[in-house]
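Thread: "does anyone have the structure for this chain?"

Original post by V.I.:
We have the sequence but no experimental structure in hand. Need at least a predicted one for the grant figures.
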Amino acid sequence: MSRPLRITYPDAFYHITSRGNEQKAVFKNKRDRTKFLEYLESASERYSAVVHAYCMMDNHYHLLLETPSGNLSQIMRHINGAYTIYFNVKRGRSGHLFQGRYKAILVDRDEYAKELSRYIHLNPVRAKIVELPEEYEWSSYMFFIGKKKKPEWLYTDFILRYFGRKRSSAEKEYQRFVNLIIGEDHESPLKDIVSSTLLGPPDFIRYIKDTYISGKKSNKNIPALRKLIDKVSVNDIFERVEGVFSDNHVLSRNVKIYLCKKYTANRLSEIGAYFNIGESGVSKVYRRLSQRIEKDKKLKRNIDKIIKSLDLSKVQT
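Reply from O.Q.:
Generated one for you, tokens below.
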């Protein structure tokens, strides 16, 4: 199994998932689940982990986790490692309990914390274990809506703050927010993940790339990193296109859209946001310019010049 990309820094915010090996149960009874919560508590005490939300299903768990000390691997070694030892000793078994490496998605908290907490708390509902999230004992939801006294290590204030300054009203608004999509078709916030690693708006993705990924090109054995670093930035494309097509605003715009779609990791919606058009608009411009390039040799030469200057010929499309 290839190594996942881990981007770590102080105060980073993650959506964590870890699944049982061969999809087998990692929580078999109440004692297992209680023990796992104890390891979340000790991770908070020993390694300053900030747990914002959690949900334990039978064969996997979800966490919203913040790392004030930038020590994600240390925290996760403690949680998964200590729990695996407990589970194996209790049952006289050995070997891996969790399937491969845990999945850690670096998240723009301001953009996605609310949605991800709702996604996590609705896991038992989506799995048809319960009809309402408050009927499920093994998530943090009851602490968010004020039905149970929360443990000191669980930090609900950050997310509840989006729903009001007064805690009692914020709890009611949060419950309304979660209940709003029960029984409705609702897209998962995880659909917008970039390279299986990042979740946030384009400016967040660019900031993480520029700050924490640039200069890591030697680590080609990490597929997610390779995907991120092999894609040119939107700003690079804009600068080069404007230098070549400065006298034709419409053509310059269309070439930017064409190259962004062809050579960046951005989704259609993200590209369209730069030009105030929708996903279908991006696809239409791309298709029409592709056809024009086949017929217009001068246009093709100019675009090839941009591609060469940005070294895009080596980028897989």
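V.I.: this helps a lot. The chain has two domains: 12-192, 230-314.
O.Q.: and The CA atoms of residues 155 and 204 lie 24 Å apart.
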